[in-house]
Protein backbone atom coordinates (compact mmCIF):
# COMPACT_ATOMS: atom_id res chain seq x y z
CA UNK A 1 0.00 0.00 0.00
CA UNK A 2 2.73 2.49 0.93
CA UNK A 3 4.59 1.72 -2.28
CA UNK A 4 1.44 2.33 -4.33
CA UNK A 5 0.80 5.68 -2.66
CA UNK A 6 4.44 6.68 -3.09
CA UNK A 7 4.35 5.69 -6.77
CA UNK A 8 1.23 7.73 -7.43
CA UNK A 9 2.76 10.72 -5.67
CA UNK A 10 5.87 10.50 -7.82
CA UNK A 11 3.78 10.10 -10.95
CA UNK A 12 1.78 13.27 -10.30
CA UNK A 13 4.95 15.13 -9.28
CA UNK A 14 6.75 14.31 -12.52
CA UNK A 15 3.62 14.78 -14.62
CA UNK A 16 3.03 18.24 -13.18
CA UNK A 17 6.60 19.37 -13.74
CA UNK A 18 6.64 17.90 -17.25
CA UNK A 19 3.66 20.13 -18.03
CA UNK A 20 5.51 23.19 -16.80
CA UNK A 21 8.67 22.18 -18.60
CA UNK A 22 6.92 21.90 -21.96
CA UNK A 23 5.24 25.28 -21.51
CA UNK A 24 7.79 27.86 -22.59
CA UNK A 25 7.81 31.40 -21.25
CA UNK A 26 6.37 34.08 -23.50
CA UNK A 27 8.64 36.74 -24.95
CA UNK A 28 7.00 39.86 -23.51
CA UNK A 29 7.86 43.55 -23.34
CA UNK A 30 6.94 45.03 -19.97
CA UNK A 31 6.03 48.66 -19.29
CA UNK A 32 6.34 51.18 -16.50
CA UNK A 33 3.12 52.37 -14.93
CA UNK A 34 3.42 55.89 -16.37
CA UNK A 35 3.86 54.50 -19.90
CA UNK A 36 0.47 52.86 -20.08
CA UNK A 37 -1.70 53.35 -16.98
CA UNK A 38 -3.56 55.99 -15.00
CA UNK A 39 -5.26 55.91 -11.57
CA UNK A 40 -8.93 54.95 -11.80
CA UNK A 41 -10.03 55.80 -8.26
CA UNK A 42 -8.62 56.35 -4.77
CA UNK A 43 -5.13 57.59 -5.64
CA UNK A 44 -4.28 57.57 -1.92
CA UNK A 45 -4.54 53.77 -1.95
CA UNK A 46 -2.26 53.32 -4.98
CA UNK A 47 1.44 52.85 -4.26
CA UNK A 48 3.98 52.95 -7.08
CA UNK A 49 7.54 51.66 -6.75
CA UNK A 50 10.47 54.10 -7.27
CA UNK A 51 11.20 52.58 -10.70
CA UNK A 52 7.45 52.70 -11.56
CA UNK A 53 7.47 49.04 -12.61
CA UNK A 54 5.34 47.80 -9.71
CA UNK A 55 2.04 49.14 -8.41
CA UNK A 56 0.31 48.10 -5.19
CA UNK A 57 -3.47 48.49 -4.89
CA UNK A 58 -4.78 48.76 -1.34
CA UNK A 59 -8.13 48.13 0.26
CA UNK A 60 -8.80 49.61 3.68
CA UNK A 61 -11.86 50.74 5.63
CA UNK A 62 -11.92 53.99 3.61
CA UNK A 63 -11.79 52.64 0.07
CA UNK A 64 -10.59 50.12 -2.44
CA UNK A 65 -8.49 51.27 -5.39
CA UNK A 66 -8.02 50.78 -9.10
CA UNK A 67 -6.02 51.62 -12.21
CA UNK A 68 -6.88 51.75 -15.89
CA UNK A 69 -4.94 51.69 -19.13
CA UNK A 70 -4.45 55.16 -20.59
CA UNK A 71 -5.71 53.98 -23.99
CA UNK A 72 -8.27 51.74 -25.62
CA UNK A 73 -7.12 48.72 -27.60
CA UNK A 74 -8.64 47.05 -30.63
CA UNK A 75 -7.71 43.49 -29.67
CA UNK A 76 -4.58 42.77 -27.70
CA UNK A 77 -2.65 40.82 -25.09
CA UNK A 78 -3.06 42.06 -21.51
CA UNK A 79 -0.91 40.63 -18.76
CA UNK A 80 0.52 41.24 -15.30
CA UNK A 81 2.29 39.36 -12.55
CA UNK A 82 -0.07 39.57 -9.58
CA UNK A 83 0.38 38.78 -5.90
CA UNK A 84 -2.83 38.63 -3.88
CA UNK A 85 -3.47 39.60 -0.25
CA UNK A 86 -2.61 37.01 2.39
CA UNK A 87 -3.98 36.14 5.84
CA UNK A 88 -7.70 37.00 6.02
CA UNK A 89 -9.27 37.55 2.57
CA UNK A 90 -13.02 37.01 3.03
CA UNK A 91 -15.18 39.50 1.13
CA UNK A 92 -12.31 40.77 -1.04
CA UNK A 93 -12.36 40.80 -4.85
CA UNK A 94 -9.31 41.56 -6.97
CA UNK A 95 -10.08 41.98 -10.67
CA UNK A 96 -7.96 42.14 -13.82
CA UNK A 97 -10.20 42.74 -16.82
CA UNK A 98 -10.92 44.55 -20.07
CA UNK A 99 -14.08 46.58 -20.62
CA UNK A 100 -15.63 49.48 -22.54
CA UNK A 101 -18.65 50.04 -20.30
CA UNK A 102 -17.95 53.77 -19.93
CA UNK A 103 -18.24 54.32 -23.70
CA UNK A 104 -20.82 51.69 -24.64
CA UNK A 105 -23.03 51.69 -21.56
CA UNK A 106 -25.87 49.53 -22.88
CA UNK A 107 -23.91 47.30 -25.21
CA UNK A 108 -20.50 47.00 -23.63
CA UNK A 109 -17.94 44.20 -23.98
CA UNK A 110 -15.87 42.68 -21.20
CA UNK A 111 -13.32 39.95 -20.48
CA UNK A 112 -12.69 39.16 -16.81
CA UNK A 113 -10.27 37.48 -14.48
CA UNK A 114 -11.66 37.91 -10.97
CA UNK A 115 -10.12 36.62 -7.75
CA UNK A 116 -12.42 35.97 -4.81
CA UNK A 117 -11.16 35.85 -1.24
CA UNK A 118 -12.19 33.18 1.20
CA UNK A 119 -12.64 32.43 4.88
CA UNK A 120 -9.44 32.14 6.89
CA UNK A 121 -7.53 28.99 6.08
CA UNK A 122 -9.35 28.45 2.77
CA UNK A 123 -7.76 29.13 -0.63
CA UNK A 124 -8.41 31.94 -3.07
CA UNK A 125 -10.74 31.09 -5.95
CA UNK A 126 -11.08 32.85 -9.27
CA UNK A 127 -13.27 33.03 -12.32
CA UNK A 128 -13.11 34.04 -15.97
CA UNK A 129 -15.98 35.57 -17.90
CA UNK A 130 -16.92 37.02 -21.25
CA UNK A 131 -19.58 39.56 -22.18
CA UNK A 132 -20.28 40.87 -25.66
CA UNK A 133 -22.55 43.69 -26.78
CA UNK A 134 -24.13 44.11 -23.36
CA UNK A 135 -24.96 40.42 -22.96
CA UNK A 136 -24.48 40.44 -19.17
CA UNK A 137 -27.49 38.14 -18.72
CA UNK A 138 -25.66 35.64 -20.93
CA UNK A 139 -22.30 35.75 -19.18
CA UNK A 140 -19.99 32.84 -19.80
CA UNK A 141 -18.52 32.18 -16.36
CA UNK A 142 -16.06 29.51 -15.38
CA UNK A 143 -14.72 29.18 -11.82
CA UNK A 144 -11.56 27.54 -10.60
CA UNK A 145 -9.08 26.83 -7.85
CA UNK A 146 -5.31 27.20 -8.26
CA UNK A 147 -2.48 24.71 -7.87
CA UNK A 148 -0.46 27.23 -5.84
CA UNK A 149 -0.99 29.86 -3.16
CA UNK A 150 -1.38 33.18 -5.08
CA UNK A 151 -0.58 35.19 -1.96
CA UNK A 152 2.90 33.70 -1.51
CA UNK A 153 4.47 34.77 -4.81
CA UNK A 154 3.61 36.69 -7.96
CA UNK A 155 2.16 34.71 -10.87
CA UNK A 156 1.41 35.91 -14.38
CA UNK A 157 -2.25 36.17 -15.45
CA UNK A 158 -3.03 37.03 -19.07
CA UNK A 159 -5.92 37.70 -21.43
CA UNK A 160 -5.40 37.23 -25.17
CA UNK A 161 -8.17 38.84 -27.25
CA UNK A 162 -8.12 38.54 -31.04
CA UNK A 163 -10.78 38.61 -33.80
CA UNK A 164 -10.52 34.80 -33.87
CA UNK A 165 -10.22 33.68 -30.27
CA UNK A 166 -9.80 34.59 -26.62
CA UNK A 167 -7.43 32.68 -24.34
CA UNK A 168 -7.01 33.05 -20.58
CA UNK A 169 -3.62 32.08 -19.15
CA UNK A 170 -2.26 31.44 -15.66
CA UNK A 171 1.51 31.75 -15.95
CA UNK A 172 1.96 30.19 -19.41
CA UNK A 173 -0.71 27.52 -18.87
CA UNK A 174 -3.82 28.11 -21.04
CA UNK A 175 -6.85 27.49 -18.85
CA UNK A 176 -9.67 28.48 -21.20
CA UNK A 177 -10.12 29.22 -24.90
CA UNK A 178 -13.16 30.78 -26.59
CA UNK A 179 -13.10 30.39 -30.37
CA UNK A 180 -15.24 32.92 -32.20
CA UNK A 181 -17.90 31.64 -34.60
CA UNK A 182 -20.72 33.26 -36.57
CA UNK A 183 -23.43 31.84 -34.28
CA UNK A 184 -22.10 33.98 -31.41
CA UNK A 185 -23.01 37.19 -33.22
CA UNK A 186 -22.51 40.22 -31.00
CA UNK A 187 -21.87 38.10 -27.91
CA UNK A 188 -18.19 37.99 -28.86
CA UNK A 189 -16.38 41.16 -27.68
CA UNK A 190 -15.46 43.23 -30.72
CA UNK A 191 -15.30 46.90 -29.68
CA UNK A 192 -12.17 48.65 -28.33
CA UNK A 193 -11.59 48.07 -24.62
CA UNK A 194 -9.47 49.43 -21.78
CA UNK A 195 -7.59 47.30 -19.26
CA UNK A 196 -8.48 47.61 -15.55
CA UNK A 197 -7.06 46.33 -12.28
CA UNK A 198 -9.01 46.84 -9.03
CA UNK A 199 -9.41 45.68 -5.44
CA UNK A 200 -12.66 46.28 -3.58
CA UNK A 201 -14.97 45.23 -0.76
CA UNK A 202 -17.55 42.69 -1.95
CA UNK A 203 -18.82 41.75 1.50
CA UNK A 204 -22.42 41.69 0.32
CA UNK A 205 -21.90 38.59 -1.81
CA UNK A 206 -18.34 37.36 -2.31
CA UNK A 207 -17.83 34.82 0.51
CA UNK A 208 -20.53 32.32 1.43
CA UNK A 209 -23.15 34.52 -0.19
CA UNK A 210 -22.17 37.52 1.92
CA UNK A 211 -22.23 35.70 5.25
CA UNK A 212 -18.53 36.37 5.84
CA UNK A 213 -17.47 40.02 5.56
CA UNK A 214 -14.21 41.85 5.12
CA UNK A 215 -12.52 42.14 8.52
CA UNK A 216 -10.68 45.46 8.60
CA UNK A 217 -8.70 44.32 11.61
CA UNK A 218 -6.37 42.91 8.93
CA UNK A 219 -6.14 46.05 6.78
CA UNK A 220 -4.61 47.13 4.56
CA UNK A 221 -5.23 44.38 2.04
CA UNK A 222 -2.59 44.66 -0.67
CA UNK A 223 -2.61 43.34 -4.23
CA UNK A 224 0.63 43.82 -6.15
CA UNK A 225 0.89 44.18 -9.93
CA UNK A 226 4.17 44.14 -11.85
CA UNK A 227 5.61 43.03 -15.22
CA UNK A 228 2.83 45.01 -16.88
CA UNK A 229 2.11 44.13 -20.51
CA UNK A 230 -0.22 45.88 -22.97
CA UNK A 231 0.12 44.78 -26.57
CA UNK A 232 -2.41 45.74 -29.22
CA UNK A 233 -3.61 48.47 -31.52
CA UNK A 234 -4.45 51.77 -29.77
CA UNK A 235 -7.67 53.31 -31.09
CA UNK A 236 -10.19 56.03 -30.44
CA UNK A 237 -13.13 54.19 -28.83
CA UNK A 238 -15.84 56.22 -30.57
CA UNK A 239 -14.45 56.82 -34.03
CA UNK A 240 -12.42 53.59 -33.77
CA UNK A 241 -9.62 55.32 -35.65
CA UNK A 242 -6.28 53.73 -34.91
CA UNK A 243 -3.04 55.48 -34.12
CA UNK A 244 -1.31 52.88 -36.30
CA UNK A 245 -2.36 50.36 -38.90
CA UNK A 246 -4.49 47.94 -36.92
CA UNK A 247 -4.49 45.38 -39.71
CA UNK A 248 -0.73 45.02 -39.35
CA UNK A 249 -0.85 45.10 -35.53
CA UNK A 250 -3.53 42.40 -35.40
CA UNK A 251 -1.56 40.25 -37.84
CA UNK A 252 1.47 40.62 -35.57
CA UNK A 253 -0.66 39.69 -32.56
CA UNK A 254 -1.97 36.56 -34.29
CA UNK A 255 1.58 35.51 -35.11
CA UNK A 256 2.67 35.57 -31.44
CA UNK A 257 3.37 32.30 -29.65
CA UNK A 258 0.56 32.90 -27.15
CA UNK A 259 -2.11 33.27 -29.87
CA UNK A 260 -2.12 29.55 -30.66
CA UNK A 261 -2.28 26.74 -28.12
CA UNK A 262 0.37 24.15 -28.87
CA UNK A 263 -0.21 20.38 -28.41
CA UNK A 264 1.77 20.64 -25.17
CA UNK A 265 -0.41 23.57 -24.14
CA UNK A 266 -3.52 21.47 -24.84
CA UNK A 267 -2.24 18.81 -22.47
CA UNK A 268 -1.61 21.44 -19.78
CA UNK A 269 -5.09 22.91 -20.26
CA UNK A 270 -6.70 19.47 -20.04
CA UNK A 271 -4.79 18.78 -16.81
CA UNK A 272 -5.84 22.10 -15.30
CA UNK A 273 -9.48 21.88 -16.28
CA UNK A 274 -10.00 18.32 -15.10
CA UNK A 275 -8.34 19.04 -11.76
CA UNK A 276 -9.18 22.67 -10.84
CA UNK A 277 -12.38 23.83 -12.55
CA UNK A 278 -15.52 23.72 -10.39
CA UNK A 279 -18.15 25.51 -12.48
CA UNK A 280 -18.68 26.00 -16.22
CA UNK A 281 -21.57 27.70 -17.98
CA UNK A 282 -21.04 25.28 -20.88
CA UNK A 283 -22.35 22.46 -18.65
CA UNK A 284 -25.05 24.51 -16.93
CA UNK A 285 -28.14 22.99 -18.55
CA UNK A 286 -30.43 24.92 -16.22
CA UNK A 287 -29.32 28.34 -17.48
CA UNK A 288 -28.53 27.08 -20.95
CA UNK A 289 -30.70 24.12 -22.10
CA UNK A 290 -28.80 24.56 -25.35
CA UNK A 291 -25.13 25.31 -24.63
CA UNK A 292 -23.83 28.70 -25.85
CA UNK A 293 -22.60 28.37 -29.45
CA UNK A 294 -18.90 28.69 -28.60
CA UNK A 295 -19.00 25.76 -26.16
CA UNK A 296 -17.08 22.62 -27.03
CA UNK A 297 -18.44 19.83 -24.85
CA UNK A 298 -15.58 17.60 -23.72
CA UNK A 299 -16.83 14.18 -22.55
CA UNK A 300 -14.27 13.92 -19.74
CA UNK A 301 -15.42 17.33 -18.46
CA UNK A 302 -19.12 16.66 -19.00
CA UNK A 303 -18.91 13.70 -16.60
CA UNK A 304 -17.60 15.99 -13.86
CA UNK A 305 -20.61 18.30 -13.69
CA UNK A 306 -24.21 18.26 -12.57
CA UNK A 307 -26.86 19.86 -14.78
CA UNK A 308 -26.28 23.06 -12.79
CA UNK A 309 -22.75 23.30 -14.20
CA UNK A 310 -21.26 22.61 -10.77
CA UNK A 311 -19.13 19.62 -9.79
CA UNK A 312 -20.94 16.42 -8.90
CA UNK A 313 -18.95 16.02 -5.71
CA UNK A 314 -18.90 18.80 -3.15
CA UNK A 315 -15.53 20.51 -2.98
CA UNK A 316 -13.61 20.92 0.25
CA UNK A 317 -13.57 24.72 0.22
CA UNK A 318 -16.40 27.12 0.96
CA UNK A 319 -17.61 30.19 -0.86
CA UNK A 320 -20.21 31.54 -3.20
CA UNK A 321 -20.66 30.70 -6.86
CA UNK A 322 -22.01 34.12 -7.60
CA UNK A 323 -20.76 36.63 -10.06
CA UNK A 324 -21.07 40.38 -10.58
CA UNK A 325 -20.81 42.98 -13.23
CA UNK A 326 -19.28 46.40 -12.98
CA UNK A 327 -20.80 49.77 -13.45
CA UNK A 328 -19.78 52.80 -15.41
CA UNK A 329 -16.69 54.82 -14.92
CA UNK A 330 -15.53 58.08 -16.38
CA UNK A 331 -12.12 59.24 -17.45
CA UNK A 332 -12.59 62.18 -15.10
CA UNK A 333 -12.04 61.90 -11.33
CA UNK A 334 -15.19 60.91 -9.52
CA UNK A 335 -16.42 60.68 -5.99
CA UNK A 336 -16.45 57.16 -4.63
CA UNK A 337 -18.30 55.47 -1.85
CA UNK A 338 -16.50 54.21 1.22
CA UNK A 339 -16.12 50.81 -0.43
CA UNK A 340 -14.11 52.35 -3.26
CA UNK A 341 -16.86 51.85 -5.84
CA UNK A 342 -18.07 54.93 -7.74
CA UNK A 343 -21.27 56.39 -6.35
CA UNK A 344 -22.73 56.30 -9.85
CA UNK A 345 -22.78 52.51 -9.48
CA UNK A 346 -25.96 52.85 -7.48
CA UNK A 347 -27.84 54.67 -10.23
CA UNK A 348 -28.37 51.78 -12.63
CA UNK A 349 -29.20 49.18 -10.00
CA UNK A 350 -31.43 50.82 -7.37
CA UNK A 351 -30.94 49.47 -3.87
CA UNK A 352 -27.98 47.36 -4.89
CA UNK A 353 -24.46 48.00 -6.12
CA UNK A 354 -23.98 47.90 -9.89
CA UNK A 355 -21.08 45.54 -9.31
CA UNK A 356 -23.36 43.07 -7.59
CA UNK A 357 -25.90 41.88 -10.17
CA UNK A 358 -26.17 38.49 -8.54
CA UNK A 359 -27.70 35.17 -9.24
CA UNK A 360 -27.21 31.63 -7.96
UniProtKB/TrEMBL annotation:
Alphabetical list of Gene3D superfamilies matching this protein: 2.60.120.200
Biological process terms in GO annotation: cell wall organization
PTM text: Contains at least one intrachain disulfide bond essential for its enzymatic activity.
Keyword Acyltransferase carried by entry: no
UniProt xrefs under InterPro entries: Beta-glucanase-like, Beta-glucanase/XTH, ConA-like_dom_sf, XET_C
Record's subcellular location: Secreted, Cell wall; Secreted, Extracellular space, Apoplast
Source species, domain of life: Eukaryota
GH16 domain span: 31-225
Function: Catalyzes xyloglucan endohydrolysis (XEH) and/or endotransglycosylation (XET). Cleaves and religates xyloglucan polymers, an essential constituent of the primary cell wall, and thereby participates in cell wall construction of growing tissues.
EC number from the UniProt entry: 2.4.1.207
Protein name: Xyloglucan endotransglucosylase/hydrolase
GO cellular component assignments: apoplast
Main location: secreted
Keywords: Apoplast, Cell wall, Cell wall biogenesis/degradation, Glycosidase, Hydrolase, Secreted, Transferase
Name of one Pfam family that matches: Glyco_hydro_16
Originating species: Abeliophyllum distichum
Tagged with keyword Cell wall biogenesis/degradation: yes
Uppermost EC category: transferase
GO molecular function: hydrolase activity, acting on glycosyl bonds; xyloglucan:xyloglucosyl transferase activity
Family of this protein: Belongs to the glycosyl hydrolase 16 family.
